[in-house]
Amino acid sequence: MTKQTWSQRFETALHPAITLFNASIGFDIELIEYDITGSIAHAKMLGKTGIISVAEASTLVQGLEQIRQEYREGKFQPGVEAEDVHFAVEKRLTELVGDAGKKLHTARSRNDQVGTDTRLYLKDQIGQIQVLVRGFQQVLLDLAEANVETLIPGYTHLQRAQPISLAHHLLAYFEMLQRDWERLGDVLKRVDISPLGCGALAGTTFPIDRHYSAELLGFGDVYRNSLDGVSDRDFAIEFTAAASLIMVHLSRLAEEVTLWSSQEFSFVTLKDSCATGSSIMPQKKNPDVPELVRGKTGRVFGHLQGLLVLMKGLPLAYNKDLQEDKEALFDTVKTIKVCVEAMTILLAEGLEFQPARLHEAVNEDFSNATDVADYLATKGVPFREAYNLVGKVVKTSMAAGKLLKDLTLAEWQELHPAFESDIYGAIAPQQVVAARNSYGGTGFIRVRESIEAAKERIN
Ligand code: ARG
Q: pTM for the complete prediction?
């Protein structure tokens, strides 16, 4: 058993099981490059303020860069004896540069250090996720552009309601993702604050320059209160909340694709590159990709809940409980990235809409009933009266096994004298959709405008 880095007040070494229990190196190794970057800024600050000599600072910086190199080459793989990534790097630094390495931790604590690392990590990851979200939006936009006049049933209560442009449907997801992208940017503002220099909890007696180290690290601001700086994890919760909303959106689309690919809907077929087979039923092609996205949504929600509960009873300032924030955060980041990527591939190249089937779906039902009522309303019949009348028409047509388009003009006129031969055009699905040109509606003119506007919004 090896003794730990802690002070000499400890007589005996840690119990091996407790060593394992306490250690975070198994997962916080994820932070290593951010830890090195944070330490480099801290070392430079120590040199600039004269807390250590400029020569010592540059020795530290060189040593830290060497550790980065060793890590990238797979030559530095700290084990559980290091406890956490912060101790691991400091220990290696002292091996590399000797006593100067022992000066790195002057005017710093692991508490402000881990907070700095986590924020640097998350800033980086948020940027990467935003790029992925943009990529997905672009795919939705391309697919929308190709399908402005492709119709699909629009649903409420999962009952066919009114036909819509397929592009309009896809653009609804574009809008959700646009909010997601913006929300990540909002979260970023509160991740972009440096806790470095808050020390263990109370600041430090050394004449540090927190603004300088923050500037070196590219932080937009510094925490104003040291207790808050070391113990705030709001930023992690906010991020996980934003991530949860992204998952809500991906999951809704995943659910739709899953439904659409069922034999009952058959609105899309899955291409072999994005579908899987059954081990026992040879005829099956399963939508594993959207199902997994839908399934992974649960764990991201779980992380949000986990972080909220983690924080609710913590007294100021740092408590070891906070070590538990990392796996939640890392897993949220990884899950979001793979899910956005998978859905992007699925939509870009993994599915094929079935035009014949979509055409049949919008032509063979009563989803143009509202348009009959609207038709009468434009001819002066009060809407509620028209609505009731059309209800009766639907009922009698259904009983007769007919669709609205099958009624003869005489039959229409018997129902109401206001009907004229233009009723057939007015209830043809293409016309029905084209006519919904109110702002934000599915009319083709509006959809084309939305596509143009969307292009500008993401560029
Ligand atoms: N591994 C620790 C964490 O993730 C680093 C901070 C430890 N601080 C302490 N006072 N024990 O929270």
A: 0.95
